[in-house]
Design a protein that fits this description.
The chain is an alpha/beta fold and about 475 residues long. About 55% of the residues lie in helices and about 10% in strands. The structure holds adenosine-5'-diphosphate and magnesium ion.
């Protein structure tokens, strides 16, 4: 069936106006940006333009064949998934090269930053020429400085090493500087900070790029038969920084090229800074000789954030936003979003944007509301069944009484507490909760929630019981 949407008004109506698609696309772009990071996003994904929809297929346009192939191999599946989530009947994403005369100049969402001019923008028809040296630094993000980096136990060593390299590049023991750690913990931030700091002096030339970009440039140079220029450019910089080196695993030719560049630079007394998601010794799949050399300088890891660091980061970002964010809200976020700084920052930014947009103060309630979907994903996924079980055990009633019709106080009260906790700890709606409690009405749940809150205020012992249960369920 080509157009399965004919019988589904709601899905179809969204597509009559191009607006629905545009909005979906904006949301997809925002997701992707979060997932792949600013630099990758800007390098690859802002080049995509929306094309037509045909049946269950949407076409996305890219200016060059190389970009198309790249986006297809790296992001094709993810793009299909995201489109399908946004517009359920879209099942396929077709990536095409923009033909001459196509109206679609890439229209990246307007949320950012002029993307650095890259050869493939200006000359879609020709193979991309390698960049001149100044282009090697365009990707530095001015927000990522040492000043804006919040230091705590998990990252203080990496920070100190980065500072040291920025002050005195190529000093013994610090070359190469190898930064590693999990996603979103500040590796890219520190590298940009080093670059920005060094450029301030005006004395040194700095090149920063992701390993992905390194590979892309290398391939582009091969295609345009300008590998010699490419090599010369890279070998003429004072400081070379390559981000996310793990990307080169399995890309043997590019690895080889990087290895030679690396050696040439180090031998010439230039500084190398590399980041990866693992330590050199754990990066299996990289050539041994490269791994060995990478481990020869300073290896600094960034550990997962602690609660204290998350609070400091949130405080610092809130302060610079000019929006008042109560300490309670910051604590709530630091408790809930523990995965990485990028997500933490994203959550805070959303709160701040919301506050600015609607001119409303940030409260705990507003936070739960605005971040509903995000928190849901981070919920420790307590189920209603678990809540019922724990509560029943606690007050020594039968589990079946959670859904029975009995109204005796000794049964009804625990049941209300379980409903209250279900509302607090899960993302279920009131009707959904009602259904799990013997098909009760949502007003019954509402009543239970307010009754329990009331009681908790009046009766400290009862409040303690409920809090205890909550903590047990949350951990
Ligand atoms: P990585 O490269 O390790 O995946 P990033 O450097 O891209 O992580 O960091 C993700 C986001 O979190 C960036 O916006 C960065 O500014 C922010 N960030 C990470 N660590 C810190 C920190 N210690 N202080 C302030 N911001 C941080
Ligand atoms: Mg990074």
């Amino acid at each position: 069936m080509t157009i399965g949407v004919d019988d589904d008004e709601s899905a179809f109506s969204g597509l009559h106006s191009g607006e629905g698609l545009e909005e979906s696309w904006l949301r997809i772009c925002a997701r992707l940006k979060d997932e792949v990071g600013e630099v990758e996003y800007r390098t690859w994904l802002t080049k995509i333009a929306l094309g037509p929809v045909d049946g269950d297929e949407i076409t996305l346009l890219l200016p060059t064949r190389f970009l198309r192939d790249w986006v297809r191999s790296q992001y094709g599946d993810r793009l299909s998934d995201l489109w399908h989530q946004e517009v359920p009947f879209l099942r396929r994403v077709e990536l095409q090269v923009t033909r001459a005369g196509d109206p679609a100049a890439p229209t990246p969402p307007a949320t950012h930053l002029s993307s650095p001019a890259q050869p493939e923008d200006s000359a879609p028809a020709r193979p991309a020429a390698p960049d001149n040296r100044s282009d090697l630094v365009t990707a530095l993000d001015s927000r990522f400085t040492f000043d804006t980096f919040v230091v705590g136990k998990p990252n203080e060593f990496a920070y100190a090493c980065a500072r040291r390299v920025a002050e005195k590049p190529s000093s013994a023991g610090f070359n190469p500087l190898f930064l590693y750690g999990g996603v979103g913990l500040g590796k890219t931030h520190l590298m940009h900070a080093i670059g920005t700091e060094l450029l301030k002096t005006g004395q040194v030339s700095v090149a920063y790029m992701s390993a992905e970009k390194f590979m892309y440039r290398f391939i582009a140079a091969i295609r345009s038969q300008s590998t010699i220029e490419f090599k010369e450019q890279l070998r003429s910089v004072d400081v070379l920084m390559i981000d996310d080196l793990q990307f080169l695993i399995g890309k043997d030719n590019t690895q080889e090229e990087f290895f030679h560049t690396f050696n040439a630079l180090v031998d010439a007394g230039r500084q190398i800074v590399v980041s990866a998601d693992k330590s050199p010794s754990d990066l299996s799949g990289l050539e041994d000789r490269l791994r060995t050399r990478l481990g020869c300088g300073m290896v600094a890891d960034i550990h997962a954030t602690t609660f204290e660091l998350r609070i400091s980061i949130l405080e610092s970002k809130a302060a610079s936003s000019g929006v008042v964010v109560p300490a309670k809200v910051l604590e709530f976020l630091a408790h809930k979003i523990t995965s990485n700084v990028r997500e933490l920052e994203g959550a805070l930014n959303r709160l701040i944007a919301h506050a600015n947009l609607f001119g409303r103060p940030v409260t705990l309630e507003a936070t739960q509301d605005v971040l509903h979907d995000l928190l849901k994903a981070h919920d420790r996924r307590v189920t209603i069944e678990e809540i019922q079980k724990k509560v029943a055990e606690h007050w020594n009633i039968r589990l079946t009484d959670m859904s029975s019709a009995r109204r005796a106080r000794n049964v009804a009260r625990p049941r209300q507490v379980a409903m209250y906790l279900a509302k607090q700890l899960t993302s279920r709606s009131l009707p959904e909760i009602g259904r799990k409690f013997g098909n009760r009405d949502h007003t019954t749940v509402m009543h239970a929630v307010s009754r329990v809150s009331e009681l908790m205020e009046r009766d400290a012992a009862f409040a303690e019981d409920v809090e205890l249960l909550r903590r047990m369920l949350e951990s």
